[in-house]
């Protein structure tokens, strides 16, 4: 326990130092890693801990991003105010989607979420909503500058803003998941009949899990819109949802640190694949995916856990 | 009234496309209890193999036969080499392997064959049959082939010992081993058959939609929906589901909601159906014992 | 005296050609190389267009083997963005901030380019010859670092609108368009071109790239009674639309957008006999059209493809497009001489006066100026006669 706290403290110190040591471009990439980590944490709460498979979390990511973009573009809202609004909107949206989803299991839920992920870009392009969503042209957002004349450039400020929110979200998740709620979620995933028999209100927990999970991914979406300064339907196609799923599996299901490993994977491995081969870059990405899953079927987090357990048990 | 009929006919034609791939999905599900997201890409890839054969001068039916055999072998190979190592991994890990397969096959097909569309020959006559202009002879023929494959699959699973063994292996691997069924080979066989069914689907679909690496992407979504709505463990349900989805999609787009939201509304309706009948229309309701 | 005259003459010579002798470099340029950046969709839903990036890379490989540009090798750095705007932003930043390229050339797609539009202009890096037909790249007052290249979609659509109003003023028009920026841009141009006569349109139907076929849409259009068809589809769907219209006995006056006019990859799969009467516009030679079969420029292109890009298709007109844009950049960089500053790159790009690469149709030239950031603006109408496209009328546009 103490060692964990020490490790996290060191990680945080490194994280705070990085923007002053690396280029603006790398800072931007690291900001994206944090955004993905938050998104993946959201998906992990639902799919990893609670066993409800979602192939459409890109839809909540898009919802959060567009919330932020529309508020900034149409209502002139300051960028930091858009994050709690996106969180609230996605929490409600997720919960509402989770209610009918209660009746669906496994494959059927997968299809329903897949449908959501596929339908979202179509909704975003819809002419009658184009007044707000910008339609196919998307919305361009202004880049936030550091406040109070702090000696930080825009990229560094955005990095710290994202870092603060990401840390807060991770702490919140850690609190939620290590206690009763986390155990209830896992119980519902593994033995839902027994869980019900023990008095866990399965329906409430499952819908709530959907809501919270959507909220996390929505916050990530809002942060991504601010970092990239542009939203368009093409940014949120079904591949986003699929890549998120790949991310949590490679990172490690039902694991908080897994979200971070997964985020590193989905941010950097496609770039690596591109360097290796222009002829068929996604084929290389696919090979990496298979490689990771073969070597570490329980994800990077799972493999690390196994490694630590082995060390502990060997004299 | 004419207009509605035309849309229904066009819908049945597209529905035939969905039905044929849905059959392959059901096939793989019955054999492995998994839905293989890469099924469409395997079908597309084997269709390219057929195209290469035809281009090299092989006549249609021999090329068809060779392709089905190659697809069968490819399916077994994929199961033994790619899927076997993750047999005991969590289900989602296997899903990621499927996604990886999808991405690899798509990318490699694009690299080898480029993205320009290719014509694929049809074994059926060219002139409109019975004066029906809204469904080409090939579309009619393709539906016929799908129904044939359906009948063959139904007979195989229902009446042959091998089919029974496969279903047993998927449903209850441990008990099956106890009665002497080689579960590993049943899985491989299932994959081989699914790939073969997929190849037939691809070769029937390609003349209609033209052959290119992204041919099966959109079809997979609707086929998946059709298979679930029909009942994922019922081949007949998958086929009926396919036709239903095709007609529904066309009628919605033409008369109800317009094409801009067609996809959204069609999917919403499908999910609505699933909420009412969670196992699909013809699926078996699963009862989990405590 | 003679020495003084000689010195004066030398000074005069130097002053007359300021480019030579004075080497000026911005990041990305040096005595030995010019770094050119690019993003293209090598993966994802638009990966069909990735062949353009590969053609350009092959072209500059050839240029380097032939000695480079003014003695400098071109280092063409291209990254995959999967047609995803967030990735385009990341890759553009990598090119500008990490690889330190001199300019970014031909990034592909309207959403990807929209995502980096502001950034490129804020960083004052040339955002040159972008690969999209959208209209917004010709705006030198607000975005002086961005320039398009190809004739824009709205201009093309207006030409069809004008043709219809002239030849068939009582027409009932049906439109099929892809539900994305490309389709909607054409639609807007068409609406604008018809102006008050917009009511001539009796039906507009869209389709998604994920739709398997557009057969249902064609049936809808026929049912609407339209006798003119404006077909805004990409190659696969264009072939389906042409074939289906013929099969169901619908014979409208059929306008096909310029993106899908390839004889080998669209009309032949659709059926050459089913494509008779199609009207479109063109600005580039189609390598599969018989009339250019022995054309010197196309032959040169074929030789280039066979040697430097053997994996590339000889029937894909994207590859002629990529070749032609690359030649254009080659010309611009050549004109820069030793003054390889970003400002000079833009200046040279904005002072092309009637220059033409030979793969463009006869009569079509590239002209730019300080307030004209649209290099290729002219097109010519053409009609398909069952064997090849027959150009007719005069060269339209500027």
Structure, explained:
The complex is a heterotrimer of chains A (315), B (290) and C (398). Chain A has helices at 2-21, 24-49, 58-74, 79-101, 106-125, 130-133, 154-178, 180-190, 192-197, 202-228, 238-251, 256-276, 281-295, 299-313; strands at 139-140, 230-231. Chain A has 315 residues and is mainly α. Chain A is globular, with a radius of gyration of 20 Å. Chain B has a domain at 20-216. Chain B has eleven helices and no strands. Chain B has helices at residues 2-32, 39-55, 60-83, 91-113, 137-159, 161-171, 173-178, 183-209, 217-230, 235-256, 262-276. Chain C is of the alpha/beta class. Chain C is built from twelve helices and 13 strands. Chain C has helices at residues 2-16, 50-65, 85-98, 110-123, 153-167, 181-194, 215-223, 235-247, 263-270, 296-308, 317-336, 342-349; strands at 24-25, 33-40, 73-80, 103-105, 127-128, 173-178, 201-207, 228-232, 253-256, 279-282, 339-340, 379-384, 389-396. At the A-B interface, helix 5, helix 9, helix 11 and helix 13 of A face helix 4, helix 9 and helix 11 of B.
Summarize this entry quickly.
The complex is a heterotrimer of chains A (about 325), B (about 290) and C (about 400). Chain A has about 325 residues and is mainly alpha-helical.
Mean of residue pLDDT values of chain B: 88
Let me know the number of strands of chain B.
0
Largest interface: A-B, 44 and 41 residues
Summarize the helix and strand pattern of chain B as letters: HHHHHHHHHHH
Helix-strand makeup class of chain A: mainly alpha
Strand order of the largest sheet of chain A: 1-2
Q: Estimate the helix proportion of chain A, in percent.
A: over 70%
Number of strands of chain A: 2
Shape of chain A: globular
Strand content of chain A: under 5%
Low-confidence stretches of chain A: none
Could you tell me how far the N terminus lies from the C terminus of chain A, measured between alpha carbons in angstroms? 20 Å
- Overall geometric form of chain B: globular
Query: Mean of the pLDDT scores of chain A?
Result: 91
Question: Beta-sheet strand percentage of chain B?
Answer: under 5%
- The Rg value of chain A, from CA coordinates, equals 20 Å
Span of the ends, CA to CA of chain B: 54 Å
- Write down the Rg of chain B: 19 Å
Biggest sheet features of chain A: 2 strands, antiparallel
List keywords for this structure.
heterotrimer, A: 315 residues, mainly alpha, two-stranded antiparallel sheet, 14 helices, 77% helix, 1% strand, globular, C: 398 residues, alpha/beta, Rossmann fold, 2 domains, 4-stranded parallel sheet, 13 strands
